[in-house]
Amino acid sequence: MATQTVRIFLSWCHRDKASVDALLHDLRPTLRLFTDLKIEWWQDSHLMCGEDFEPAIRDRIDEADFGLLLVTPHYLASTFIREHELPRFSGSAADRPPLPVKLSQLPQFGPAYDFGGLEKLNMFSLDGKAFTEISRHRRTDFSNRLAEAVRLRALGQNGYTS
After folding, report:
1. Where, by residue number, does the polypeptide cross the bilayer (predicted)?
2. Within a domain: residue 8?
3. Are the C-beta atoms of 15 and 76 separated by less than 8 Å?
4. Residue 162 lies in a domain
5. Is residue 68 included in any domain, yes or no?
6. Which residues contact 86 (CB under 8 A, 6 or more apart)?
7. All residues at 6 or more sequence positions from 43 whose CB lies less than 8 Å from its CB, including other chains
C-alpha cells in the first residue's frame, strides 16, 4: 500500500499556546500511526530567524492540502489571523479547505459575533465540547477522534457509507 503525504497548515493563536501544546501532545503520536498517510504540518513557529513571515505563511498555506484551525476567542480576535490566515480557509474568498477545531469554548453563534465565516462550517468537537472543556482523561479520546477526522479529510472520505 502506498503512503500518501498530506501537508497541513496549523493555524492557531500564540495566546493559546498551552492549550495547543496539550492538544498536540496527544495528537502527534496518533497521526504517526497511520499506515496510509504521512502527515506533515507547518506552523509559524517553524519560521527561520530573519524570515519574512507574511510571504512565508502565504507560501505554506498555498502548499497545504488543508488548514487545521484551532479556534478560540483569542484566535478569532487576532488581527493577523483575521487578515492573513482565516480568509484563505473561510468565507467567500477561501481557496483552501479547512478543518476547524473547537479548541476552547466559544460564544454562541449569532449576529452579535463575527466568526469570520466559521459559523457556517462544521467545527470539530467531542460531544459538542471544546478540547479545553474536556476532562484530562478524555483529552486523548478528543485527540484520537481528531486524528481520524484529519485522516478522513486527507483522504476525501466524507461521503455515504453502507
Report:
1. none
2. yes
3. no
4. no
5. yes
6. 11, 69, 116, 117, 118
7. 9, 10, 11, 12
Does residue 160 lie within any of the structural domains? no
CA–CA distance, 29 with 143 (Å, rounded to integer): 10
Output phi, psi for 62, to 5 deg: -60, -35
Nearest-Å Rg of the Cα atoms of the chain is 15
Beta bridge pairs of residue 70: 101
Rounded-to-integer distance, Cα 81 and Cα 100, Å: 13
* 86-137: pLDDT as tens digits: 999 998 889 999 999 999 999 988 888 989 999 999 999 999 999 999 998 8
Q: What is the dihedral of CA 134, 137, 138, 141, to 10 degrees?
A: 140
At 31 the three-state DSSP class reads helix
Please report, for the domain that includes residue 71, its CATH number: 3.40.50.10140
Query: What is the rounded CA–CA span in Å between residue 22 and residue 110?
Result: 29
The Cα 49–Cα 111 span in angstroms is 41
Total-model pTM: 0.91
- 21-59 tens-digit pLDDT: 999 999 999 999 999 999 998 877 766 677 677 888 888
The tally of domains found in the chain comes to 1
What is the span of the domain harbouring residue 70?
4-155
